[in-house]
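To the wet lab folks,

You asked to see what we're planning to order before we commit. Fair enough. Below is the target structure as tokens, and below that is the sequence we designed to fit it. If anything looks off to you, flag it before the synthesis order goes out.
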């Protein structure tokens, strides 16, 4: 039976920052996100990661995405990439991105990349060779679903963050079948693939490779908008790159994401709140907890 995620569990695993720390103390994160059609997804993932404490964040993206993200997040570093025929990153940039990944503490791959052959080619190049822990979200999961097995860096952590439709594609079943057995599906997939599964939705499930299963109780229907998952993916990768255990990086991100959304709904209402609004409330939660 799943264990409920609580505030005390989250802050037990999320330490206060040390007075003598610096940006290098909190990890180097590489995000491979965004295309001409989905520029906002990259911006939300990047800001989610920065607001969750990542020390140095580099975004590998095409120039229109970089312009959009740079206007919102001047703290980010950029690895400009050529645009491919499908409006995303040219797969020929794979080697440059791979070199950046090998100098990083975690890699986020997928938000807003586009469900294209170019995304699939990049994942084939990066997935098993990145040399750092990997978080797969959105179009990264769509690309992975078409591969014989989940791509993962050798002997390094892998976190996947599917919604029920993406989980259905990964498992080769219907969305209805996923929703009928969310806890057992997530747990079984995590064990079989030696990864952490964040199965999103009402009462999000977090499952680990050793049979651990957690259920989240924070969050509300105001999160039911495009972009919410991009923020969650960024937060998860930020905690991972700061050295949290992969399972608890996901657990902390899921609870905090939902708790911030609950505060946001109290301010703006579930109809009126937007995904980027919850970042203010996330900061309030950190401030109130001494983080």
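Sequence we intend to order:
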């Amino acid at each position: 039976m799943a264990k409920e995620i609580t505030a005390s569990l989250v802050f037990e695993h999320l330490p206060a920052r040390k007075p003598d720390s610096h940006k290098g103390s909190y990890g180097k994160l590489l995000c491979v996100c965004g295309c001409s059609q989905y520029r906002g997804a990259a911006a939300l993932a990047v800001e989610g990661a920065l607001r969750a404490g990542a020390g140095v964040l580099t975004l590998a993206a095409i120039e229109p995405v970089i312009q959009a993200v740079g206007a919102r997040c001047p703290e980010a570093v950029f690895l400009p990439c050529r645009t491919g025929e499908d409006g995303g990153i040219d797969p020929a940039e794979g080697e440059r991105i791979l070199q950046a990944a090998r100098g990083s503490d975690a890699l986020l791959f997928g938000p807003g990349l586009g469900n294209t052959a170019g995304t699939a080619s990049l994942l084939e190049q990066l997935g098993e060779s990145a040399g750092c822990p990997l978080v797969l979200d959105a179009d990264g999961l769509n690309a992975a679903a078409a591969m014989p097995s989940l791509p993962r860096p050798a002997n390094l952590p892998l976190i996947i963050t599917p919604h029920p439709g993406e989980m259905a594609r990964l498992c080769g079943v219907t969305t209805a079948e996923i929703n009928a057995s969310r806890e057992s599906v997530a747990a079984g997939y995590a064990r079989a693939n030696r990864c952490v599964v964040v199965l999103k939705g009402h009462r999000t499930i977090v499952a680990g490779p050793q049979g651990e299963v957690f259920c989240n109780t924070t969050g509300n229907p105001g999160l039911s908008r495009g972009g919410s998952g991009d923020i969650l993916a960024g937060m998860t990768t930020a905690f991972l790159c700061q050295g949290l255990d992969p399972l608890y990086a996901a657990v902390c991100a899921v609870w905090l994401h939902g708790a911030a959304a609950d505060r946001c709904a109290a301010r703006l209402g579930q109809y009126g709140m937007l995904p980027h609004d919850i970042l203010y409330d996330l900061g309030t939660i950190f401030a109130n907890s001494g983080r």
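Structural context that might help your review: The beta strands are 3-4, 28-32, 56-62, 77-81, 106-109, 134-136, 158-160, 196-199, 205-207, 213-215. The mean pLDDT is 97.

Thanks,
Computational group
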